[in-house]
What does this fold into?
Amino acid sequence: MAIEQLKTEEFMVNMGPQHPSTHGVCKLVITMDGEQIKSIQPHVGFLHRSIEKIAENRTYAQFVPYTDRIDYCASMNANHAYVTAVEKMAGIQVPERAEYLRVMMAELNRIASHLVWIATFAIDLGAVTPFLYAFRERELILDLFEMTCGQRLTYNYMCIGGVNWDIPQGFEPKLREFLKIFPQKVNEYEYLLTNNPIFLYRTKGIGVLDMDTAFAYSVSGPSIRGSGLKWDIRKAEPYSIYNKFDFDVPVGHTGDVWDRYKVRLNEMRESTKIVQQAIEGLPGGDTKVKVPMTWKPPEGEVFSRIEAPRGEMAYHIISDGTPKPYRIKIRTASYCNLQVLPVIAVNHLIADLVAIFGSLDVILPEVDR
Amino acid sequence: MLELNVIFEAVHRWLEGILPQGLVTLISALGTGGIVLAFLSILALFLVWWERKVSAHMQQRLGPMRTGWHGVLQTIADGVKLVQKEDLIPATADRPVYFWAPVICFVAAFMAYLVIPFGRGLIVQDLNIGILYIIAITTFTVVSLLMAGWGSNNKWALLGGMRSAAQIVSYEVPLTLSILGAVMLAETLSMVGIVQSQAGGFWNWLIFRQPIGFIVYYIAATAEANRTPFDIPEAEQELVAGFNVEYSGMKFAMFFLAEFVNMFTISAIAVTLYFGGWNAPHPIFNFVPSWIWFMGKSLVSVFILMWFRWTYPRIRVDQLMGFAWKFLLPLAFLNIILTGLGVLIFRN
Amino acid sequence: MAGNIIKEITDGIYNLILGLAVTFKHLFKHAITLQYPTERWEMPERSRGTIVLLSDPETGRLNCTACLLCSKACPVAAISIERIKNPDTKKFEPQSFNIDTTICCYCGLCEQACNFTAIKLTGKYEFSASDKSKLLYDMGFLQEIGRDVKYEKREKTAAKKKAVAKAETGEDVGGAPVADAKAESSPGSGEAKKED
It folds into this structure.
């Protein structure tokens, strides 16, 4: 009897907004044939907070806390994207010490964000312990941040013209301590996961993202570097003072889940190098130039992008000469990366969907803003 | 000295003096069954606490600390909480099926303990088909999981139930075949007989003559007990607890406890078949009671199962099946062939 | 072919045991968690927790001069102030000072805007309430929770510039990280226009 004559039906399953593996409130409507996925339709917008509309009613300085909350796992990078865009538009020159501090904090936050990613990715696959180990290291980074600016998640650290706080007295020894132990901890995660046959079973050859699809859907960040393209905005269009640092950009070969995992793991190591160079070369000086609160930027518009942990975060700001922007458009990485999920997860099983979704490192506040 | 079978035999003889034979048999059967049931309930409580503590310390945290000394009474607190929860039955659930599924799971888990030798003379009933009885009983869990999945009237539960049924049925085959190897060497199906064939010292333990058989048994048994890396049926992250997603309160507690009791069952069988049961590793240590040896070895095996759970990710269901049929099964057959050849050459 | 399979199997077993070794090693390490509430984390000096209003340690009066800068700086409009002119001193005083902590996002822009060290974010965080109305703090409450907060009074910008210039004539300012509150970066001054 042919398969068609058995009259099996495809059935639709809702991986609802509340689910342990959808990294936020994202609804996936999955059409399945048995265990195989035939199509996925992501429904987003559950976390939409109208940040871009709110921006039209806030001054440039007042908008910085809102940028924290666009991607709360990588708040420093989100801040960085916004302030570099505004400074580019107005031609403000930031003191060098502030630039060094910005890069240091941004890279530390990249490490913290990737640690969250490894933790949630491993726990989605069933390995509970790397979650605790990754968060243990993240605590050290968050302690450093708390010491500097008083908060652990949404920092409001950077401002237009520099940074709000200089590093306090006990920061440097603690940072050096962290940089000393961190490479061994990354090796620990590798022992637990990278060559583990069970992990390899779950991630090798799964969710292959080839270059053409990635380009078509504007995938950026580690997701496209896993497919083999060595594109990192810190190297391609250096912003801030990234051209002064010596670091490598890890790439994968096949674009499967394992490659993306490996890319992020190596990125953590590279970020450690950058932070090491930053703390060694930290110059003296001011930490900000004074920018008045009702500062009126020149009329015009700017498009500026940075490399956030999840990919490319870009700001398009249109100013009409008043203290409040006319329009801010935020291009976030997760929104574009999520588009590629229905394409690469077809014909996989639900267990693979969890692995693929995890490997794209999508964070929903970035998607919905 | 502290051999418990002395107490039981004394009580039995005393009863025989007072009551007629039939009544004595009945009372002794019910009594020993009841004692094993009580012991297992306490053991399940202990195992739940131990798992939480082991997992906590592996993750550099503390686990339960407030209820009793270092949280010993935590499981009782959880049990009380579950008992006083509302017994929710989904409106569209298939009531009899939904109700009986946890009961069957629980009963099947406990019935295997009729033939587990806890020590010298400490076995409820030494059936001469002991190990075969256990293999038959552990299959009941499949029925209960299917019932749970179907009776919940929930797509996710159904998926979980079907997956678990497929998993358990697939792993039964290598499990049985690996046990066959040990039985061939012990030349008896009775559990007490298998233990007695390993008496004398650790060099007589069957692990040294059945290494492949042990590995196949251990992996297959982990899959039977739905422990990571084979815990797809309860994969929280994928199916939101799988087949028991619609269960709450005492029914959920039954599934949960049955899992821990199963874990101890497979450890007990591993110890009986491969590690000498209640025998001491060397005749010098015979002063230590046999049940302490048995419990100690079983708890070590339970610890190893917990260790696996908190280290490894889980395997996907189709890879799980492939692993059972394409890797474990040929290995089990190889084991039987080699054991048969060995018996032929070295005993005849 | 067979050699490949054997190598795969031995590699697999080796890596599985490596994973087990990592978790086993951690069994013997100290726990890194705190048993709250018996053990508490010591909040760093710059913690941005609950907002308080600071008072002069000698006179007990609020430092606040009702300049309304913090209210204008707040991005979420959590601060509402009403002011009256004191007939004796001819200076403004806050008549009512309300902070809606259900809206406050703890960004610290109000603290940066204040020139009189009147408002501060502290390391206090245990203010849960079961009634939402209790989370709207009025002036009395803000002053009360601010009484035990140690602070250093920030000088006004012009005076500060003079002091910094004076210090610079004798010594050279090094690149070492600065520690105390006085030398922290100056807040953004100037008026902020904000629609309510």
